[in-house]
Every structure is written in C-alpha cells, then in structure tokens.
Amino acid sequence: METTGTSIGTTVKLPWAESYSVQETKAPEGYILDPTIYDYTLKDFQNQMDATGSILLAKNHSVTMTNTPITGKIQVKKVDEDNNKALAGAEFDIYKGSLNPGDTYENVQEPGYKKVGTITVDGSGIGVSPALFTGK
C-alpha cells in the first residue's frame, strides 16, 4: 500500500487470510518512520457482517496513521571577539528558505522566505531556537 501524497492511500485487493499486518516502510520526507506493526484480524471487520452474523465476502477496513515531524534546534554562542567573554542580549531571526550566494539580510525578508523563530542570547552567551521542522 502506498499513500498518494494527499493523505489517502490506495486500496489493495488482498487474498483471504485470518489476519494481516501493516507496517510503514518509508516515511514522507521530514517525518519520522513509524515502526509499529499494526495487526488486523477478522474481529476488526465485525461491523461488516450481514444480519445473520455471516462475514461479508467483501470487507474494507480504514485506518488513520500519523507521522511525527522531524524537528531540531539551533544553538548560538555569542562571545566578545577580543576576550571570548560571553555576551548577552543578541537576537537572531531564523528564516525558512535557501539563501543564494551574495544574498544579504535584506533579501531574506523578500517573498519566498518565512520567519520561523528567533534566538535570544541569555546571560551565559547561549541562545537556543524553538523546535524547527526539517525537510521541505
């Protein structure tokens, strides 16, 4: 089974079996693979029996599986150039987008770039960003 990019997977006709297992083998870019094995048995299809309790020959089972985005943080250490003393109070804006060679801070504020966070340096000279999503 493969998802279609629209959060909906394709339906696959399977031969008769007492149970099936489903496991994600490739996560979408920027997401953590879910290693869980999901087992489905005839009990999962109980609501698809006819009035006499006979199991229907054609059975469908829909499930929703979620993925956790991959995140990371940026840490900045700000120090004095002359004596390597920690400096507090500096702020760094974080933008999503790729800078081209020769781009400047002014270019970053053009359409196509999106501010996703700010790092503020504390008294120890260290600042850490909020969790940032990786991938596209």
Supply database-style keywords.
136 residues, mainly beta, two-stranded antiparallel ribbon, two-stranded antiparallel sheet
What does this structure look like?
- The chain has one helix spanning 105-108, and strands spanning 19-23, 37-41, 71-72, 75-77, 91-96, 114-120, 126-128, 132-133.
- The protein is built from one helix and eight strands; from the N terminus they run E-E-E-E-E-H-E-E-E.
- The longest helix has 4 residues, at 105-108.
- It has a two-stranded antiparallel ribbon. It has a two-stranded antiparallel ribbon with strand order 3-8.
- Helices cover 3% and strands 24% of the residues.
- It is mainly beta.
- The chain is elongated.
- The model has no long low-confidence stretch (mean pLDDT 80).
Q: Give the biggest beta sheet.
A: 2 strands, antiparallel
| Structure summary, number of beta strands | 8
Please compute the radius of gyration using only Cα atoms: 25 Å
Report the helical percentage. Answer: under 10%
Low-confidence stretches: none
In terms of DSSP E residues, the strand content is 15-25%
Distance between the termini: 24 Å
Treating each run of at least 4 consecutive H or I residues as one helix, how many helices?
Answer: 1
Silhouette? elongated
Secondary structural class: mainly beta
User: How much is the average pLDDT?
Assistant: 80
**H-E string:** EEEEEHEEE
- Trace the largest sheet across and list its strands: 1-2
